[in-house]
Design a protein that fits this description.
Blueprint: E1 6-10, H1 18-25, E2 31-34, E3 43-47, E4 50-54, E5 67-70, E6 75-76, H2 78-90, E7 99-102, E8 106-107, H3 110-123, H4 135-143, H5 156-176, H6 185-199, E9 203-204, H7 206-215, E10 220-223, H8 247-254, E11 263-269, E12 272-274, H9 288-295, E13 308-310, E14 312-313, H10 314-324, E15 328-332, E16 342-351, E17 354-356, H11 363-366, E18 370-377, H12 394-407, E19 411-415, E20 423-425
Helix pairs in contact: 3-4, 5-6
The structure holds inosinic acid.
Inosinic acid (IMP) binds at residues 13-15, 40-42, 128-131, 133, 135-136, 225-226, 230, 239, 241-242, 275-276.
């Protein structure tokens, strides 16, 4: 039987728990590849006593017989990449011959980071709340055809000329608009040529690599970073990241065609969180929001910022289903909701006197929507040790069933904690077994 190729995407604003799920699903795939974003992501994997946060390297890396790739759509800060590789080497995870980087990946340079932070300052109250990792400016340079690609680090003269060109405008901005120090290309070149030397052994044409492996019977999991509503086209613009986080972005970002993919698996928390600025209709300020934040340890894994917390928004997930072509859903952190007397689910919005089910496209109109909720009774007790759906408290079973009904997406997996074994598999993602629900 042909092994399935899947895409795993976040259905909300990121931080849905993709790290744990990708690590879990990795046992059934041969290749795991990231296709967008950079070290703005923070995918946490807990395996026994180990708790690791992967910013760049695919979360499947702990499964040692698997191949992990960074596709051409990923932007790479070499400082972070080599830190992460060193950390893996320290815990004796084998990297050689199983980790590869697209030679077309764009490189995050120190001037991208400075620009990211200075621009946020310039925006003042209208700041995006970026992670400050230089992600946006690196993608801007890519589109402006001023970017540095991984392969460029191997050609000293070409690399030097490219930095000089890129800095012509940027140094003007730093000096005259942003009040920042300028960059001297001569001070950048050595460090980055050295990174190039270290990177060389990992560089391949990842799209050709994937094509050849798929043709010879391997299967693939494409790991999205951030989430659907941080997509630069379809997210809550302008409060978004600078890449296409959607499943569609995976094809350009890894260099393969849509006909290769069999399933798109969407990950959502049992509630909603968001980090950074931007509208969030079901946000709970204080009270229950703080309870969820503390219990769910909802603090950014990259920046440590407290995440904004709120109720599950079925409208968003339904929209995410269409945007990504989702075929199955994984619900994480159900355990965090235990102990709440009542749980609300957003089923629509009131907007200028009418009920709507989709956020308006305009930012100012979005600020006017008021969420409409249905209430469900909560459940008591620690459910993280439960290993079968039928042993869950009845109200938590009803909650999952209601989420399935409201979103129209079949639930594959429910996660009840950080550990690999705190997971209920209801429908195997790779071989369609009959639904348990
Ligand atoms: P940037 O990606 O650093 O440019 O940040 C743009 C927006 O995306 C900000 O609101 C960030 O907080 C958010 N963001 C970026 N990466 C992540 C992530 O991995 N999880 C959640 N939010 C993220």
């Amino acid at each position: 039987m042909k092994k399935k190729n899947i895409i795993v995407v976040g259905l909300q604003w990121g931080d849905e728990g993709k790290g744990k799920i990708v690590d879990l699903l990795a046992k059934d795939v041969d290749i795991i590849a990231r296709y967008q974003g950079g070290n703005n992501a923070g995918h946490t994997v807990v395996a026994g006593d180990l708790s690791l946060v992967f910013r760049l390297i695919p979360s499947g890396i702990l499964n040692e017989e698997k191949i992990c790739l960074l596709g051409n759509g990923v932007v790479i800060d070499p400082v972070v990449l080599f830190e992460e590789l060193d950390n893996l080497k320290k815990i004796n995870i084998k990297i050689k011959d199983r980790f590869f980087v697209s030679n077309k990946c764009h490189i995050i340079m120190p001037y991208h980071k400075r620009l990211d932070i200075a621009r946020e300052r310039l925006r003042g109250a209208g700041m995006i709340g970026t992670t400050g990792r230089g992600i946006g400016p690196t993608y801007e340079d890519k589109v402006a055809r001023l970017g540095i690609r991984a392969i460029d680090l191997l050609d000293r003269q070409l690399f030097y000329d490219k930095i000089v060109l890129s800095l012509k405008e940027k140094n003007y901005l730093f000096k005259n608009v942003l009040g920042e120090n300028v960059f001297d290309p001569d001070e950048l070149i050595e460090d980055y040529i050295n990174y190039g030397k270290k990177l060389k052994e990992y560089l391949v044409d990842t799209s050709r690599f994937i094509a050849e492996r798929l043709d010879s019977g391997s299967n693939l999991m494409l790991e999205g970073a951030q989430g659907t509503f941080l997509d630069v086209d379809h997210g809550t613009y302008p409060y978004v990241t600078s890449s296409n986080t959607l499943a569609g972005g995976a094809f350009a970002g890894a260099g393969l065609g849509p006909t290769r993919i069999d399933e798109v698996i969407g990950i959502t928390k049992a509630y909603t969180t968001r980090v950074g600025e931007g509208y969030f209709p079901t946000e709970l300020k204080g009270g229950t929001g703080s309870i969820i934040r503390d219990k769910g340890e909802e603090f950014g894994s990259v920046t440590g910022r407290p995440r904004r917390c709120g109720w599950f928004d079925a409208n968003l997930i339904r929209e995410a289903k269409y945007l990504n072509g989702v075929t199955g859903m994984i619900i994480t952190k159900l355990d965090v909701l235990s102990g709440l007397p009542e749980i609300s689910i957003c089923t629509g919005y009131m907007f200028r006197g009418s009920k709507i089910h989709q956020l308006p496209a305009s930012f100012s109109e979005c600020c006017e929507v008021k969420p409409l909720y249905e209430e469900m009774p909560g459940w008591e007790g620690d459910i993280s040790g439960i290993r079968s759906f039928k042993d869950l408290p009845v109200n938590s079973q009803k909650y999952i069933l209601r989420l399935e009904e409201l979103t129209g997406i079949p639930v594959n997996i429910v996660s009840l904690g950080k550990e690999r074994n705190q997971t209920l598999i209801l429908n195997d993602v790779f071989c369609k077994s009959p639904a348990v629900l």
